[in-house]
Q: What sequence folds into this?
């Protein structure tokens, strides 16, 4: 009886070892086959509260699309999925703008991130005007709408 219990404990242990090794290897493979995503990027609370002074309408979205195609498309891709032609060269994957996780942040938060940048994404403070940054946000918002 005791022998049986010992035997079954031993089996349980080796079973969990197999599970452990399998998940370990999968995680290991995953880490090396996908481009890593950096730690979550969080805007400071004061920036999160800032509201977009540019109304979202046909004109501002069209203007934002031009800014996007010129400055963001290479990395972020046509539909904002982070699959632009340059994305393969980046050490960090650009985020997916179509996801709820991205879209649920405020315009102020997105504005701050575009202005500050975070390697490998550059800061756009000097590259594009404030107005253009708000316009590009109005455009990015349209990428999150399920069609
Ligand atoms: C050189 C490639 C590159 C270009 C060009 C670029 N980005 Fe990025 N962007 C990235 C990468 C990589 C990240 C992820 C950075 C991180 O998580 O640390 C990112 C992240 C972001 C984020 C934050 C995503 C989140 O999860 O909150 C926003 C917003 C953003 N980019 C907007 C833009 C806009 C707008 C433009 C054009 C004006 C632009 N980016 C141009 C590479 C780029």
A:
């Amino acid at each position: 009886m005791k022998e049986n219990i010992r035997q079954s404990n031993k089996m349980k242990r080796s079973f969990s070892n197999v599970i452990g090794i399998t998940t370990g290897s999968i995680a290991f493979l995953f880490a090396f086959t996908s481009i890593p995503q950096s730690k979550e990027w969080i805007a400071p609370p004061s920036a999160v509260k800032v509201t977009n002074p540019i109304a979202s309408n046909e004109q501002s979205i069209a203007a934002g699309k031009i800014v996007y195609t010129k400055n963001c498309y290479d990395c972020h891709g046509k539909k904002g999925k982070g699959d632009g032609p340059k994305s393969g060269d980046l050490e960090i994957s650009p985020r997916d703008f179509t996801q709820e996780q991205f879209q649920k942040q405020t315009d102020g938060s997105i504005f701050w991130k575009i202005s500050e940048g975070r390697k490998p994404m550059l800061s756009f403070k000097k590259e594009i005007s404030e107005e253009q940054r708000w316009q590009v946000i109005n455009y990015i918002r349209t990428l999150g709408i399920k069609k």
About this structure: The helical segments are 2-33, 45-48, 58-71, 73-76, 100-103, 107-116, 130-143. The chain has two domains: 1-34, 45-143. Residues 22 and 126 are 49 Å apart (CA to CA).
